[in-house]
């Protein structure tokens, strides 16, 4: 029986590279591309099938920053599939990143230069906005939309006879200092991306605590520092040109500089081959690349505790009730 794999954000960057690599690992997969832009998804599907004609590649259109779209896609998936073996929760945004130039040049000439480039700590702020659902856009896209997707797809994911696995794209930039239980959407802060990735780490731990007994397991991954559509806009092209020799040199001293989406998927593909019940729920799996370009996987204990994870999970459940009631009321009025 074909394994069924759902990948959100599959039309570019890490998501696209992941799809290609998964089909290299198992060319008979049923791979479902979950994308906002259907035309882009169709082009990706055609390219994947051209190289792997034995695979089954389908598309579901979904925008995780729009809950109506998430509900609609979930209904469609439940009609198409009896189960999902893997769900890669990869779609995400870092809107309008602003670089702290002073911090950048200060860091370049300090002992923290490698850590700075590996984590972007102190370098980036973002301008967030409110979605049509009344939520912070980064939080809804990177966290809450995926949370609702999981809730809706539970019948396809919870099978005690054979476990299913959630694999989240997190970040080394996920920092405890940027997250607050009293402001889970980070509406009062300037680093919503970092906050959202820490929230992803918490949610993964909570999912394991609440769903392992039902056959659903969750892990988080950091793909490393890459040049993608998301990161290219942070700096002007000429600055990237100036920095790349430095970044290539830093690869000999730090393993976080995977640089390409292909390299960044190393940990995501590694998890595809693991028994999820054997994995540590408090571990983050890091894609790493040596100075000579060899890829491997590292582990890192996450800076969190299970009580905070559970409190965050309960906050999401409360928010879910509120959002569902709001949507139901809006639909009734229309």
UniProtKB/TrEMBL annotation:
It is an enzyme of class 1 (oxidoreductase). It is a single-pass membrane protein. GO terms for molecular function: 3-beta-hydroxysteroid 3-dehydrogenase (NADP+) activity; 5-alpha-androstane-3-beta,17-beta-diol dehydrogenase (NADP+) activity; estradiol 17-beta-dehydrogenase [NAD(P)+] activity. It comes from the Eukaryota. Pfam families: adh_short (PF00106). One of its GO terms (cellular component) is endoplasmic reticulum membrane. It catalyses: 17beta-estradiol + NADP(+) = estrone + NADPH + H(+); zymosterone + NADPH + H(+) = zymosterol + NADP(+); 5alpha-androstane-3beta,17beta-diol + NADP(+) = 17beta-hydroxy-5alpha-androstan-3-one + NADPH + H(+); 5alpha-cholest-8-en-3-one + NADPH + H(+) = 5alpha-cholest-8-en-3beta-ol + NADP(+). Pathway: Steroid biosynthesis; zymosterol biosynthesis; zymosterol from lanosterol: step 5/6; Steroid biosynthesis; estrogen biosynthesis. This is 3-keto-steroid reductase/17-beta-hydroxysteroid dehydrogenase 7. The lineage of its organism: Eukaryota, Metazoa, Chordata, Craniata, Vertebrata.
